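As the next step, I selected for study one protein, both as residues and as discrete backbone shape codes, as given directly below:
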Amino acid sequence: MLPQRLRIPAQHVIYAFDPTTPPIARIDPPAHLTVEARDAYDRGCNDLDIHAYLAQRVPGRMNPATGPIAIQGAQPGDTLHVHIQAVRLGPRGYVATTPGTGLLGDNPVPTSIQPFDVEDQTVTVAGVPLPVRPMVGTLGVAPATGAIEALSLGIHGGNLDFNDITAGTTVHLPVWAPDALFAIGDVHATMGDGEAHSGVNIDAEIDLHLSLTPGQHLDWPWFETPTHVMTIGVHDDLTQALRIAQHAMETRLIDQLDISPETARALSGAAMDLRLGQAGGYGVPVSAYATFPKSALPA
């Protein structure tokens, strides 16, 4: 018998993770959900009029995330496990080119909105076919205090924008506020590593399994794919972000393998891959990821 799955429509979204925001739903973990997600432009580019979109855009209302969803019993110091089971894309996504946006924002191309049509596992723009590569850009929980824009990222999760956050991946999030107040959105049909400009922003449905481990404190989120474990570093400076990600991975290796720091350092050089996460600017810090093969770790 299949587990009952709660459906969360995208009628209510947040633009900032905030512990004072009332939840739109409450779940008792473990639970299966299907969450509808709006595209990162908040469905403001559907008519392909980029100038109308820019004129009507409200500052701060970017990267809508469906939620928040209260996790019954979640308390600060717990860990929320978010397993992504499936990502189903809408039929059309969009990429806007606007001055000041992305890694080459100071060398702009003409302002435009490009539609990307999705069909048969292919994303097509201007006759150029690309393979579909669905991923979830934004997911996280409320911070302990204050509000963090959904466009940003940090110890709560947020705008992580990493291609491995996709079907089959589990994101482990530290809980900072009562009920966790989880939200998710910002799906891309495909996105280049580092998001030098923008991934293909698109409406989607996301199937999730949420579970909770009480009393399991995390300093930062970490990630599991079927083949790798991953840690994250976030900083205004890329080198520092890479250093934070590596330190987090070495700490995890020491704990999981019961090895010395020097052995963890040697394993980092032998098998750890460093990858860009969010490096396109957008007024948010740089993120980097360290990945290590699960085959070398205890089951």
